[in-house]
Structures are given as C-alpha cells and as structure tokens.
Amino acid sequence: MVGPGDCGHGKAGDLEIRAVEDEVQFPFRGLAGKRGPAFRVGADQAGGPEEERHFAFAPQGVEVTRQDDRAVHGADQPVEAFKLLDKPRNEVCAVFTVQEEVGLRGATTSAYALEPDIGIALDVTPAGDMPKAARMTVGLGKGIAVKVMDNAVICHPTVRARMEEAAKDAGIPYQLEVLTAGGTDSGAIHLSRGGVPSGVLSIPCRYVHSPAETIDLGDLEGGIKLLAKLMNEAW
Questions:
Q1: Could you report the average pLDDT of every consecutive run of 10 residues in the chain (235 residues)?
Q2: Number of folded domains that form the chain
Q3: 100 lies in some domain
Q4: How far is CA 63 from the centre of its chain?
Q5: Distances (CA, A) of 119 to 25, 160, 211
Q6: Tell me, what's the pLDDT at 42?
Q7: Residue pair 67/213 in contact by the 8 Å Cβ criterion
Q8: Using CA atoms, how far apart are residues 128 and 123, in angstroms rounded to an integer?
Q9: Spatial contact of 8 and 99, defined as CB atoms under 8 Å apart
C-alpha cells in the first residue's frame, strides 16, 4: 500500500508522538484538558516580538500546528497502525512522501517504484461543522472519513467498499467524504503505470492549513484501527 501525504516539513518538534505505556495504540490518550508542549512563534510582519505558545489538548480534540503532517503522517496514524499488525497477509509498504502540496511529486515517484496492487492515501479533510465553513457533511467526532471522490480521484469502488465493510465489522465509526476542492496523494497513485485501485482515509479537521488545525481524537483513533485492520486482511 502507498500513502500518506506531504511530510517534507522537518521533524515533529516538541509534540510527543511516542505511545504511552498503558495505551500503546493511541499516544494522545489522557491528555484532554492539559497544557501541551511549547513552541516558538516568530516575529510577525508588523514587527511584533517572538512569543511562546503551547499546544492545546481540548476535551474532545487536539489542536496543533500542521496537524495534517504530524498527527496523520509523521507522528501517528501509519506508525501506530503498524504496531497493530498481526501476521499481515499482505506485503505492506508505508511511504512518507514529500511535496504533496506542490504536485504530488513524492507519491508519483514512490508509486511508480513500488508498483503497489492497492493504494491507500492518508490525509485530513475539511470539516463542515462550523458556522462559516464550506457546507459539507463531514464533521468532527463522527468517525474517520472514507473518501468517495475529490478533484484528483474517484476512489475505486471496491477499495471504498472494503473500507466500509472493515469499519462496520470492527464497529469503527466512519463517514463518507466528497471533497469538492483539493485532493490527496491518491490522485497520483491511482494513475501510476497501468493504474492502481486506490482509496483514502481522511481525518476530519477544522481550520485546515492554518495555525490552529483541530481534530477529534476519537476520529484519529478510529483511523488507526481501521488502517491496521485493512493491512491485516487479505485483499
């Protein structure tokens, strides 16, 4: 399998990404309501001073900068899913690609080199559950999003169906996603060589590409479990 998206922004910094001892599969457990690690914010264009800020772990969500890279790609979802592998029936390859935002370049070369039978991209997707948000049904706390289509791909119906079946079988909440603008690495993966049946698991996220991206921890945990189940099953 090939995924996930853009990870070309350096190491994860001070955000704790290792699993805690009593909850191996989910490193953010127990952090709700606590003050997170500090990070530095540089001087603004108006000449304001550099300042120190902290990650905020809300009761039902976690707010960090570059959530799409850290929680989804570099920090959590694929790494934690691999910890749950139990005699997988597939040869599984995780790819931490670069330059997704400027042309799906890492996914293009990786998919060509690996020649996967199935491609699963991991990303975030905008939530439409805020007053001024673009109107869409995806929202925080409703489960991991199984993509139907976006501007770059119409997900293979068999892959999407397997994702839905796996979620139902494991009792993992999920929601369907139709993204009217933007895309993910699946846009490059599904066109590689003679074509690769592809799908996408998306974590609903508010304020995407802003300094205050926010996700629901339950959605993230469900995504980890669903990804692990898909990797463990025969295709």
A1: 41 34 44 55 59 57 52 66 86 90 93 96 90 84 96 97 98 96 94 97 90 87 95 88
A2: 1
A3: yes
A4: 14
A5: 23, 11, 30
A6: 56
A7: yes
A8: 16
A9: yes
Identify the pLDDT of residue 34.
57
pLDDT the model gives residue 19: 33
Q: Is residue 78 part of a domain?
A: yes
Cα–Cα distance between 68 and 212 in angstroms, integer? 11
In this prediction, residue 89 carries a pLDDT of: 85
Q: Which residues contact 122 (CB under 8 A, 6 or more apart)?
A: 3, 4, 5, 72, 73, 77, 78, 200, 201, 202, 223, 227
Q: Which two tokens stand for residue 43?
A: 């001087």
Separation of alpha carbons 227 and 79, rounded Å: 11
CATH assignment at residue 107: 3.40.630.10
| Structural domain for 80, as ranges | 63-232
Active-site residue list: 100
Q: Examine residue 23 and state whether it is found in any structural domain, yes or no.
A: no
In a domain, 28, yes or no: no
Alpha helices in 88-156 (DSSP H): 105-114
- pLDDT score at 41: 54
66 contacts 213 by C-beta, under 8 angstroms: yes
